[in-house]
Structures are given as C-alpha cells and as structure tokens.
Amino acid sequence: MLSRVADHIYWMSRYIERAENIARLMQVSVELLLDSSGPRATKSDDYWSPVLAATAMEGPFRLLYPAPQPGDSSHFLTLDERNPDSILSCVREARENARTVRDQISDEMWAELNQLYLLVDSARGRELLENTPQVFFEKIIQSSLLFDGITSATLSRTEGWNFLQLGRVLERADKTSRFLDIKTQSTATPADTALEALEWGTILRACSAQASYRRVNGTEFTLERVLEHLLFSTEFPRSIRFCVRTADELLHNISGTPTGMYSNRCEKLAGALLSRLNFSGPSDVLERGLHEYIDELQVALNETGQAVFEAYVLIPEDALRQAHRLHGFDPLGYHLQKQQQQQ
Amino acid sequence: MLLKSYRPADLFDELIDANGQIRPYYQPVADRLFPLEPHELEQKVKNLELLFLKQGVTFTVYGDERGTERVFPFDPVPRLIPGSEWEVVEAGLIQRITALNLFLYDVYHEQKILKDKIIPAEVILGAAHYRPEFVGVQVPRDTYIHVCGTDLIRDRDGRYLVLEDNGRCPSGVSYVLENRMAMKRVFPQLFGSTGVRSVDTYPADLLATLQYIAPRQTAQPNCVLLTPGVHNSAYFEHSFLARQMGIEIVEGRDLLVLDGFVYMRTTRGLQQVDVIYRRIDDDFLDPKVFRKDSMLGVPGLVDAVRRGNVALANAIGTGVADDKVTYAYVPEMIKYYLGQDPILDQVPTYLAWREEDRNYILEHLPELVVKAANESGGYGMLIGPMATKEEVEEFRLKIIATPRNYIAQPVVYFSQHPTLVDGVLEGRHVDLRPFILCGETIKVLPGGLTRVALTRGSLVVNSSQGGGSKDTWVLAR
Q1: Which of A2, A91, A146, B372 is deepest in the core (most CB within 10 A)?
Q2: B410, B441, B456: which is the final residue of a domain?
Q3: Are residues A19 and A123 in the same domain?
Q4: CB pairs under 8 A between A and B
Q5: What are phi and psi of B471, to 5 degrees?
Q6: pLDDT band at residue A323, thresholds of 50, 70 and 90?
Q7: Number of structural domains, chain A?
Q8: How far is B175 from chain A (nearest CA, A)?
Q9: How far is A324 from chain B (nearest CA, A)?
Q10: Residues B334 and B357 in one domain
Q11: In total, how many domains does chain B have?
C-alpha cells in the first residue's frame, strides 16, 4: 500500500472517531448541565468549558473569541470552520481523506461519510443543531458507528484495514481519557455522593458503557470501579487498555513482527504503554493523581501516533521537500498546479 | 406531453427529421419517455442528481476557495445513434487515430512529412507542445496516443465533423459509465426494446491497453494512474478509473526514480512501476526536464522513459498532434500515410500564420470562431457572432501579436437534441466525444460522452462553462 494512502486511511478514521467523540463529550455536558442544579448551570459561558478544557481547545477558543458571547463556545465546537477540531472540520477532513482514497475503500463507506458531510454542512444540519442539539449529536454518533459497521462488513482485512483501525483506536483511547478528565473539572466532591453518582453515570452513558459497567459492578458508582472499567477493562471496547491492546496487535499485523517484540519505535511505544496498563490498576492511578495519570497517557498516545507517521508515512513528504529543495516549496503554487485544466 | 412545445430549429435535429417526423430509431424511446408528465421526469432527474451528489460523482469548480464540488448536470433524454451510422464514425475515428500515431512517430523520428513539404516544418517545429527532446526516442509499440477523446459535431446536413482531437489527457469517460448506470437505474424499461450497445468493458480495455505497453512483459505489470491530486477538477474520474481497473492512483510525491527505474513508495518499501497512465500534462511530468517549478511530477521520470524502463500513456509530445493548427493538416496526413481519403470530414480552418488567411480572419472576425491553438476546455475562444465589440477587438490584437497561436473557423451551428429544461423539452446543441483506445487493436467505445450546452443558443458544451451531459446509445442495429 502506498504510504500516502495509508496516511489518508488512518486520518479518515481518526477524524470520524474524533467527530463522534466530540459529539459524545458535548452530549455529556448538556446532560450534566440539565441535571445539575449547581452554580455552573447559570453561567452560559461555562456551558462548554469542561469540554474545551478536556479536549485542550481552551487556548484556541480564547484566541478566536477573546470576549466570548453566549453560543460562541458551542459554535466553536460544532460548526466553526476555523477550529480544525470542530465537528464540521473533523467530518470534512474525514470525508476529504476518504475522497482521496476512494479507490481503496468500499462505495458504501464513502457514501456514508459523504452523506454525513453533506448533512453537517447544510442548512438542515444547522437547524438540527439549533433546535435539537441532542438529535444532532446523536446523528453524528450514529453515523460514525454505522461507518464502523460498514467498514467491518465491506473492507478486506488487508493493510488498509490495519491502518484504518489503528487511527480509530488511538483516537478512541485518547478521547476516553478525556471523558475521565471531564470529571476532574467537576465541582462535585466525593462527599456529595448523589451528584458524584450522577456524573459518573452520565459519563459512562456517553461512553456507551453504562450497561456493561452495571453488568460487572451493579448499580453503585465508585471512582475505582469506573476507572477499572474505562481504563483497564479487557472486555469493554472503548476502554483505554482495550484500545491500546488493539493498536499493539494492529501494529504487529502491519509489520509482521511477533507480539512481545518490536521492529520500530511505534511498536516499542505501544508495547510499553500496554505493559503499563497491564500491570497497574485504579490504585496506581489515584496514587499518581487522576489528572496527571491521564495527561501521561495522552502524551504516550500522541507519541505513538507520531511514531506511526514516522515509520510508515514520513518518507514521501520528506522526499517531496527534498525534490523541491532547489526551487523552494510553495504550497499555493502546488495547489494551483493541481488544478490544471483537463482536456 | 413533453414534446408538445418542442420546435426543431433551422439546423440538424437529432430527433425530428426534415419532414417533421420522429426518426424511426427514436420511436421506442419516444413511446415510453415522452408520454411522461413533466414533473415525473423532473423528479427522476432530481433523484439522480441527488444520487450523484451522494456518490460524489462531481467535478470541482475552480476559483472558489472552498473548492465547491458540483454534479455534472445530467439530461435524461438519451442521444441515439443507429448502428449503421456508428460503423462509419467508428471507421473514421480508427482511420484518424492511425494516421495521428503514424504522424507522431514520423515527427519524432525522420520527419518525412515535413521533408516532403506536406506540412510546413515551421508549423510543427514551432508548436508549443512539440518536444524536440524526444526526437529519436523509442516508445513502446511505436504508439504515442493510447487514449484519445475526439470531439465530433454534426452540421446542418447531419454530417459528423471532427472538431478537435484530444490526444493528451482527454477526460469525461467516467461520466459515460456513470450516466449509463444512472439511466439503467431510472429507465430500465427503455433498454430492453431499444438494443443498446454496452460500454461496460471500457475499464478492462483501458487496463489491457496499459499492460500492452509494459516494458517488463510479466504476468501482471504494475500499472498506476498519476493524478495531480484530489483538488483537480477531474479527480473523481481519476479515482473512478483506478478503482474500476484495480490499480493504484498515485501522486508525483508517491513516486521516485532510482538508477533510471520508477518506484512507488509503499508501507513495505519500494515497488517498481511499469506503466503510468498519467493525467497530468507533459509540462509537469519532470521538473528536471520540463517546468522546473513543477511539484506534481517526478524528478528523473523522463530519463526513465527514455531508457525504456517505464511506459507513459499517453506518450510525451502528443500535444503536437492535437494542436489546432496541426488539425488543419490531418486530412493531408491521412492521404500521406494511409493513401486513403478521410472518412470523417472536419471543419474548414483558417490559419492566422498564413498571411492570406490572417487577412481573411481579421476582416471577418464577427462571423468566425477563433481558437487559441493550444488551449482546451473551451478557454481562449471567441465566438464572433456572440461576442461584444470589445472582445472582438481584444482578439484582433492577440491574433496580430501571435498569429501562430490562432486559428479561425466558420461558425458551425451543430445539431440540437431535445433536452429537459424547466419541465419541457427544448432543443439544445450537443456534441459527441467518443473515446478511442490504441492497444493491441484499436477499440472505440460505442457512443461516448454527449455534452449539451444547457444555455439556449449556446455552442459551448464544456462542463467548466455550464455544459451538461446525456447518455449516448449506439444501437445494435
């Protein structure tokens, strides 16, 4: 498979997973807000601030909106084209990457992403968000899950599949960690058990984890058990350990290196992260501090993603620059040349 | 119902004959299609366009920052060509492409046709797309144009005339295939009784054409399609064809040349490339040889081609054959190389570089169509009778400044075809672009792309200039 194609496939699935998770995060926030009678609810500026904080988008938001008005943060997260991680931008990126590699994916996969993009970028999409935001978020989540299902039912299990799933699980692991981080932004204290339970319940629901949590742990929500479920479960497919284990397998599928060994830096990083998750538990997290632990996880996930890029993709970009070193690389000129008239 | 207000104009009408009757071969289609209520037909078209949009069967409109994608407007009334008529067109196209390939071989080798003064040497040697660097270079199977999209129009008498030969990177074939799929979906009942020749084999034929020129005759030579990238207006087509053929679609940055061989960069290292179906112009192929600032090409590619380690379709330098000045000499070429009379006529052409012709052109500008010799896509063109005074004067100055760059032709009011406009059928001008593949044998795709000028009276059918398309049915009989 062409390196560039692997890159596009990887980002296609990362971006659709990202869009899905931003929708999930916003859903959590809306629900928490509607449920809680705490002081946060009265200030509209704070409406989305846990989401902004958890996704590390606070800085870019302040930059674009130095004096935020009501509605700005919601727009920033959903349909703002200037925010590269808004739902609209993510869906567009997913679709643009898919368009580039249409010959490599099934027609049905393409059609699903294309339809989602056409909806999100339309008047109907804007109305939906305006009038029934929960339905809008639901639509994004459904479409992403449908895409996942279509992929599973129509895509051959070749290299492309491995890169596609890799993008998906790395993004999912990152975002699950951010769901947990939302909790560290909360005003609830462990003493306030009712609110505490409500918040955990909502977060678990947003991760589609409530039912599976209850099956294992019953109806009581405790920090340790939630961490066990979302961080360390070997069965729940959105847990970080599950995602990292899958990533590790996929990387070994790609290179053919036996499990437990590594042939490049991304395998080394993924393997190290997996061992760390395999050999620790909720008590280690709490000892380190939840926020700190999550931060370290996110850094490790980022490094793994970067290393995948370096191992399998970087060569062409590098060569492009090298080839044009003499003339200097001009992105605008490049763009114009690509548009040359066809007979 | 639909035909109630249809008026044939004073030119060749594809549907209605000189006596005002529906041509017999259109009857089966007319019986089923025309009794429909306008809103039924419009609804079908809307559904189709939605389908095209969902499937991303689009082209990109330039000059728009967000790179808007549009559906190529589709007209539901098919254009029919009787089998007997098509046989002549097909024979004419095969004759023409044969002569053009012989001409290109000659121009890049002994240049006998120039020495024999059949074509003035300065016309060819001064053509913008002539590649002196390629004189004496062997190309596989001595074929230069492997894929050709020749534009045909029909004059007042219904004669097919060649308007231009697109022998560089002709596009549009994906719409032929998509239009056919769309028609089958919406009007399945029309096909059975009509006897329409299939277009399905094009991708397989194209792949066979590419494999035929592979330097390594292995069981499965590695053919790739080279695209300028996802922002190109024809990217849909590039990706469509690659998918249909099951080959990789590559950008210049995916390829690299080592010791005169071309490789593509894959996640498992380098893999040798045998044939490149390139959809980028000569100018951009190799910054070491042609445009130094090209970021689409592959440094060293031309060297690999020269050494015969990789084959290009089409070959480098074919632009000299579809130059609009060269066009004027194609009938002479056919006589010179094949000893035959041209089967297909073409439009009389005045060459501005000939003084006599130039004077005629300058005196008759408002009546003529003026074209830049090297442009395509409907750009760089003046349609005298429809131009403003300022436009005419602008072209006058251009012609005087660079006469070699311009030709002029009388306006041909080419045939019209019923086309759905605001719920009724109206006559609109149509042309026809058949696609020809030169591999082991020469194959002409039955039919081709019928393009429609959707604006009333307009003669410009290009998609970039407000044209649409319709399915073209070559009948078995």
Answers
A1: A91
A2: B410
A3: yes
A4: 121
A5: -75, 145
A6: very low
A7: 2
A8: 14
A9: 7
A10: no
A11: 2
8 Å CB contact between A167 and A9: yes
| Whether residue A112 is found in the same domain as residue A49 | yes
One-letter identity of residue A338: K
Q: Does some domain include residue B238?
A: no
Average pLDDT, chain A: 87
3-class secondary-structure state, position B416: strand
Same domain, A55 and A172: no
Task: Assess if residue B245 is contained within a domain.
Answer: no
Measured in residues, chain A has a length of: 343
Domain assignment of residue B373, given as a range: 348-410
Residue of chain A whose alpha carbon sits nearest to that of B243: A103
What ipTM score was computed for the predicted complex, to two decimals?
0.78
Q: Say if B242 is an interface residue toward chain A (CB within 8 Å).
A: yes
Buried b (16+ CB within 10 A) or exposed e, B145-177: bbbbbbbbbbbeeeebbbbbbbbbbbbbbbbbb
Count of residues in chain B: 477
Query: Residue B103 half-sphere exposure, CB side, CA atoms within 13 Å?
Result: 32
Indicate whether A147 and A2 sit together in one domain.
Answer: yes
Q: Are residues B167 and B145 in contact, defined by beta-carbon separation less than 8 angstroms?
A: yes
Q: For residue A137, is it within any domain?
A: yes
Model pLDDT for residues B101-121, shown as the tens digit of each residue = 999 999 999 999 999 999 999
Nearest residue of B to residue A105 by CA position? B243
**Where is average pLDDT lowest: A41-55, B227-241, B271-285, B420-434?**
A41-55
Q: Which of A154, A186, A208 is the last residue of a domain?
A: A154
pLDDT at B376 over 80: no
Looking at the domain assignment, is residue A197 inside a domain?
Answer: yes
Contact B299 A323 (CB under 8 A): yes
* A154 shares contact with chain B (CB less than 8 Å): no
What's the whole-model pTM score?
Answer: 0.87
- B82-88 contacts, C-beta under 8 A, 24 or more apart: B82/B25, B82/B475, B82/B477, B83/B197, B83/B474, B83/B475, B83/B476, B83/B477, B84/B477, B86/B446, B86/B474, B86/B475, B88/B160, B88/B343
Phi, psi (degrees; rounded to nearest 5) at B99? -65, -40
Determine the distance in angstroms separating the CA of A217 from the nearest CA of chain B, rounded to an integer: 44
- 3-state SS, residue A264: coil
The answer to whether residues B103 and B185 belong to one domain is yes
Q: Are residues B70 and B160 in the same domain?
A: yes
Q: What is the dihedral of CA A150, A156, A158, A162, to 10 degrees?
A: 10
How far CA A227 is from CA of A177, A217, B136, in Å, comes to 10, 12, 73
Spell out which residues of chain A touch residue B248, defining contact as CB-CB under 8 Å. 2, 5, 103
Judge whether B233 lies within some domain: no
Q: Does A329 fall in a domain? A: no
Inside any domain, residue A144: yes
Same domain, B385 and B334: no
